[in-house]
Amino acid sequence: MNTIIKFIFLLLLIGSIVGCSRKKNTFVNRNWHAVTTEYNTLYNGYLGLEQGKEELNQNYADNYWDLLPIERMQIDKNIVLPDSIRNQNFGYAEEKAVKAIQRHSMLIEGKERNPQIDEAYLLLGKARYFDQRFIPALEAFNYILRSYPASNNIIHARVWREKTHMRLDNNRLAINNLKKVLDLDYLEEQDIADASATMAQAYINLRHLDSAVGPLRRAAEFAENEEKKGRYYYILGQLHNELGQINEANAAFDEVIKLNRKSPRIYMINAYVQKARNLQGRQVNNFELREMLRELEEDRENRPFLDKIYFQIGEYYNSLDSTKTAEKYYKRSLRQPSSDVYLKSINYEILANINFDRNNYILASKYYDSTLAEMDPQLREFRTIKKKRENLEDVIKYEAIAFKNDSILRLSKMTPDAQLDYFKEFTKDLRIQLEDDVDGTLLPSTFPEISSRQAQASARTFYFYNQARVQQGLQEFLNQWGGRPLADNWRWAEVGFETEDTVLEKTELSQQILDNDPRLDPYTYISQIPTEGAVLDSIARARNFAYYQLGIIYKENFREYKMAQNRLEAVLQMSSDERLVLPSLYNLYQIYQGTNQNFRAEETRQLILEKYPDSRFAAYILNPESIREEENSPEAVYAAIYQQFEAQNYSNVITETTRYLTEFKGDAITPKLELLKAQASGRLLGVEAYKSALNHVALTYPQTREGKKAQEILNNTIPKLMGLEFNTDSLQGNFKLLYKFDVSEQEAALALKTKIDTAITELDYDRLSVSKDIYNPNELFIMVHGLEDFSRAKGFAELLQINEKYLVQKEPVVISAENYRIVQIQKALHEYPVENE
Known about the structure:
The protein is mainly alpha-helical. Among the domains are: 1-57 and 66-152; 166-224, no CATH class; 416-480 and 499-526, no CATH class; 735-836, Alpha-Beta Plaits (2-Layer Sandwich). It contains 38 helices and six strands. The protein is extended.
């Protein structure tokens, strides 16, 4: 009996499969394929689509500091291969859609009989859309519109087609088509919301923000999804803010706040923040605004968003000029866990600006560093902040020099007893810190270092001969192992609670270690104070120059006239060097004039005119316009010397730059003069001299553009130039004739040049040219350029020798252009293998 039942069931199954043909338009066939399509293939396909969308949402981070996009989707600008996909879930959804079409489509006599196939094409288009393959997605949506005009998905397909057009930057086309959709009767609310939201995004893409307001408000009203409703209202508030419509913006933000837990809380928090900014900007009741921010801070549900809340509270206090309180909240905002990188950069930038305004440039520079680390380098603000940070480099450098050298000089002027008292007090405080440091976590690097001489001597000494290292080792042992008895297997022995004797022993050992710690010996530091006059003079000169540079930087770069005046007046008190005193006086004269210190300005003016009547600064005072007109202004001098450089008067360039470097010491033109001098040295003396001069520029002016350029040449160009070798390839092209003369033979060299010029003209060798090239301080060359190969060069030299009109007796060197370049760079004519050409 069971066998008969199984046989009947098998026949029925085979019959149903055979009978469910896609080519027969029967009731059973249509419904079987429709049900299978909907509840099997398409169901799984839509599951993959939703998983892919969820993954997109998780990987997408909104930037609430900018206008949000309507749809949360990060456009990937990387090009993928035609058969590739970006997301496996969307690939799976597309695969199911294709499977549904291939296996269950019933296209009979030009008409689709399976009512679920249009849904499959819709899934296909959506999967391609979210995978950012917009052209294939457009094909799928267009197929629905063309092949299924009576489909109940036709409006849905039209909206998605326009979303795709909008993604392809066909914004105007999308707007026109969506207007037609919205004019239709009997639209479902979700279709109205989707069409309106897409139209709003298209208007935003075209920067027609006022036109985007109406469609976006309609999208928010008709959206069924509360998450989208909250997003739409938030963007609507942003649009009103962009248009300066503060009341309308706050009304939109209130709608987001009303949704409360129905939409993501991030929208509500940012709506509060935006509303607080709007209220703050309109100078409304401070109590109302403060209470709103306080409630946000105290709400436990808002803990994940405290970074934004603290920042806004900081903004509130900053607007009231309560800078210290504001600073406290900006720092609290930074201490909160946050994924908002842009918020971190803003916090750091504000703290940097606060310290910059307080003239605390060193701390400001650190905050600017943090700002740049958190900021996108592509932003325009990044370049502005980077430039501001670079301007602080010199301040940091010279303030550090001034502080360090001032300290050294102050200590050197103390009597031995005063030095001992000072460092006794210092080591006393240090000992208290070390004794409080029970765990031994206080690092030696936090204290003044022992001199390098002492450190090197210690390094060469056997460990157990150095008492300080022994004591340090004992302390490290105690910190790690505690008080251990001297016994076998001490490492594994059980150690019970410490007895009073053990504690006392450990305390005594710690005290013994501290007693022998060189950091607690005042003479460790006293021994490092320089006493030689030459060393102290060098330190004082560096300190004075640092003060002068700080005065110029504060005056010219930051317009901080009070700080500039303080530094320049210090130069006058500390230095008698005219190279610093005279420009300091002139800059102080300008500061006094600009800050209405008229008496001091007149006093300084008279001092310059009486004591330095022939200086250029005196000329500037008597005739301010002469700064632009005078031939001896730094800029004019540089231009004149550069002309000499171009004329190959390298010896004059070196002499003149050396002279003016002394005269313009401290002026902004000095790094340019130094680099020009280095280039002239390289042309005249060769690559080794060039390297040495560049090294001087890079070390002396590391923060200037010229110093950085010198360092770049040292790193990249000099190694290549020093590695050049003569090319002995006989197939080289572009040859020259080289006639060598001593510098004392200038007239003969010029006569030869004139004779060859004449020959070139008369013999119709127009492609050739002649020049006088400087080789070194003692030699020069007359060069004939433009000869195609070695034999033609040799032939032209012989022609000059045998032609009765010219009779050039001097024997030239035939050299390729490539090898001549090496001769000039390395000054290596004596090494040139003439016979190999």
